Amino acid sequence: METYGYPFSIVVPDQTFSDYKSVTFSPVFLRGYVTQVVPNLNARPAMHLDMLSPPGLSGAPIIREDGRDVLGVLVGDRNIQLGGESFRFGEALLLDALRSARSTATDHRPLAEHLER
Fold this sequence. Notes:
By secondary structure, this protein is mainly β. Helix content is 9%, strand content 48%.
């Protein structure tokens, strides 16, 4: 699977206008594997990824390597301790979990149904 985005934005003083700041964006492309699917985030299926999730990359699509299917959306990373060692990996929500998400913003209907309007 693959993902991409602009997680490493840098804010610096603008060279021309001293009262303003400018932002520099650095694109990133990551490739890896889904290591497991677990019922994890708020009892919604999540994917564990064998890659890190840099700050600011949340919301990036997780795409099948052939570029045809979006599998989910990156939501962050997780750090776990096993046998005295620390392991860190990316975490993404499956697309079906996002389609079924409900909240007051969707009038408590599934997001997919709300977006059909």
